[in-house]
User: What shape does this take?
Amino acid sequence: MSQLLVRGGRALAGEVTIQGAKNSVLPILAATILARGQVVLRGCPALRDVDASVRILQSLGCEARWEADTLAVDTTALNSCGISDILMREMRSSAIFLGAILARCGRADISYPGGCELGPRPIDLHLSGLRDLGTEIREEGGFLHCTAPRLTGRELVLSLPSVGATENLMLAACGAEGVTVISNAAREPEIVDLQEFLNACGADVAGAGTSSVTIRGRRPMHGCEYRCMPDRIVTATYLCAAASAGGEIFLRGARECHLATVTAALRQAGCTIDSDGTGISCLCRQRLRAVRPVRTAPYPGFPTDAQAVLMAALLRSRGATVFEENIFENRYRHVDELIRMGAEIRVAGRVAVVTGVETLSGAAVRCTDLRGGAALCVAALAAEGETRIFETGHIDRGYQDIAGDLRALGAAASRTE
Ligand code: EPZ
Assistant: This one.
């Protein structure tokens, strides 16, 4: 099992290029099932979740191969519409393949995706939308046997703006007769990226980024070359790293428009943040201040995925910051590990109150989930001495090389096998 070693107490100074967005490339890899011909994804991040998606595509009979940071996928030879239980359990978001397989094959057999560390991850909104499009779904022994001989477009109303449900239904609607309108759709930038990819393959999708997405189905779809958007949560992570350790960094390729609520909080805390068309710079020279309550919400609200890393950046701030986690039930699992480093955090249900302390101490800590693990790295940069971070497999799901990136930004970070 690999470990991350981070020695704190050193201001950052450096530059790094932000990797492609995990939460954009995963639905795009599912969407390749709709296209006949080769898709070339440039700047594709090398992540455990991407590898899991590649294995799913290969299990369906598709070709997928890496050429440096480019992933070439050709689903022309797809010869199966079922995903094994083992593969489904490898990645929580594997449900995203359902809509695309139904649109391509007219049927699909998948097991219920596992829950995850963040709490139950139901897919009831995915399934009700697919039924509304004409899918028959039989649930048996943890498996979903889906048949959709003829998907028909219509208005779909989501009871909450689920990112995955919006994406899954966009993909299914590409195979439906007529027009589908998804109302109360999620508005995340990754959904706009998915729309751009689908249209580059010949689809007719409009409205992504708003609460109403319109898909005109059954357009002939072909391969394309595409570069995913930069990862806004990795960007938020490294901005919080600079806030935590102090110093000055530049994140090449980062787009501030994707994380305005995060940069607003960091400016409130005392960071100087500037952005232009090439990236985002962040300068933090003095001890941070506590910020106004941070309430996570669907985009364009404060992203739940940045809650842990902002919390880690504020552990030594002056004053107290209130966090309210409104998206997932169990997204404070990193708190106990941060407390081992000397943090002062009180949790009551969805609320966590962080009271700044003078010093943090390096410790042996364990990753509990993807963003909680990243938060441990952020906190370790501000701690005295060395922090040893275990179970780094969680972090590898979403960060291509967090130790290498932090070193490029001037941190004393390394990985041991
Ligand atoms: C996506 O997950 C992201 N994952 C998550 O990022 C992110 O935290 C989340 O959106 C919210 O922004 C990917 O894009 C691969 P949701 P997803 O459906 O699609 C409930 C990371 O760290 N819900 O918007 O699963 C659900 O339980 C990951 O990169 C239902 O009740 O999120 C949750 O409480 C973590 N029924 C809330 O909605 C459903 O059918 C938001 O879930 C679907 C969702």
